[in-house]
Amino acid sequence: MAGVHEERTGGSGASNGRRSSRRRPRRVLMFPLPFQGHINPMLQLGNVLHARGLAVTVLHTRLNALDPARRHPEFQFVPVLDGVPAHVAASGNVIDIIEAMNAAMEADGAAALRAVLESVVADEARPPAACIVFDANLLAVPRAAEAVGLRTLVLRTASAACLGCFLAYPMLHQKGYLPPQESKLYMPVKELPPLRVRDLFYSSWSNHKKMRELLARANEAMKNSSGLVINTLDALEKAELKRLCEELHIPVVLAPGPLHKLSSKRTRSSTPDQDYSCIEWLDKQPSESVLYVSFWKLGFPGRQRVLGGGLGLGQQWPPFSMGGSCRLGTGLLGWGKVIRWAPQQEVLAHPAVGGFWTHSGWNSTLESISEGVPMICRPQFADQMMNTRYVVNTWGVGLELEGELERGKIEKAVRKLMKDREERR
Predict the structure, then answer these.
(1) Residue 133: which CATH number?
(2) By C-alpha distance, which of 53, 37, 30, 42 is closest to 152?
(3) Is the omega angle on the peptide bond into residue 374 within 30 degrees of 0, that is, cis?
(4) DSSP labels for 39-61?
(5) How do residues 351-396 score in pLDDT, each as one tens digit?
(6) Hey, which residues are catalytic here?
(7) Same domain, 115 and 209
(8) CB 336 within 8 A of CB 319
(9) Sign of the CA dihedral with 163 first, then 292, 32, and 49 last
(10) How far, in Å, CA of 49 to CA of 121, rounded?
(11) Range of 334's domain?
């Protein structure tokens, strides 16, 4: 994996090479935050490490539990009690879910998690554990890992720019950028170019005090780790990575992304029941003729209105849509393809796809850029506004659809995307 910054210690390369040839295989423990956008990059990193000869053990919570029989039979999967009450899990409030999870796992000095790690590390039937790679939002991991003598590495599944924003949170509040004010939404954040106030990571529907506390503790866990892996690449975020390396004093900072392309095998999404019938449908469409429209389950509402607006395009560019519980008229079904969940990596890599209407999550953004597919961005929350800002204004690989969704506005955006793609050929 390509490193952005590394500090190495040890003897000569020749002697190290002789010693390494006699070493037993090692094992890496991995503990992702149990949300789709965090699970997938962690498993992709696991694929990369496994392909290089390391055994992989994945710790997972009851919430959004992984199915070992369905995916990655070469990995060991170990359950961890998360302690999230059913009503909190059902709320969908990410900050509340993480808070409940951390409270349960940190109880009694992280005793329960420490017991799990002790059992995993003591398993002599498997290679010795070298370290644990974890999501920094899982605050109990550092203490439990230290108790059993495990080094920690942090995987950041968002962009380097997003991590820079997290580190700058105290400054952003001190200087009045946050909480955002309606009159200042388009004001530049001069300390974090090219961002404006509206692009900053902020949630109006979560308890902002809780979010600040979580970010502060997650940042501390990251700074105290043995290394940092960010799912990005130098070609995209050179300036942002440079700022991080200057600010952080971590032995190793790696930017090996995009992990889904580095992996030697496809990592199935943590979403079950992906519908591969769409690939057969795409096989019958002309090259770059399809707009892939993705409505993530935590994404934006009003799917019927959005896709209904798309009917104004007629046969010019048939939309291909995925989404949860879409109730759509037969008119759309007659000239498009609507399914519940799509195999997104395969769809974006298909030659029939000429554009991507996306919520602009980081994984989706990386996957689209990797396949050269331009984007129509409709961000809603979290890091999506920030990603959109880079897609549109820094990398020039898409456009943003702002304001109320109207048929004429949708048609104009799609036609512009089509025209720009034609001009780039």
Answers:
(1) 3.40.50.2000
(2) 30
(3) no
(4) HHHHHHHHHHHHHTT-EEEEEEE
(5) 999 999 999 999 999 999 999 999 999 998 889 999 999 999 999 9
(6) 38, 135
(7) yes
(8) yes
(9) negative
(10) 18
(11) 277-417
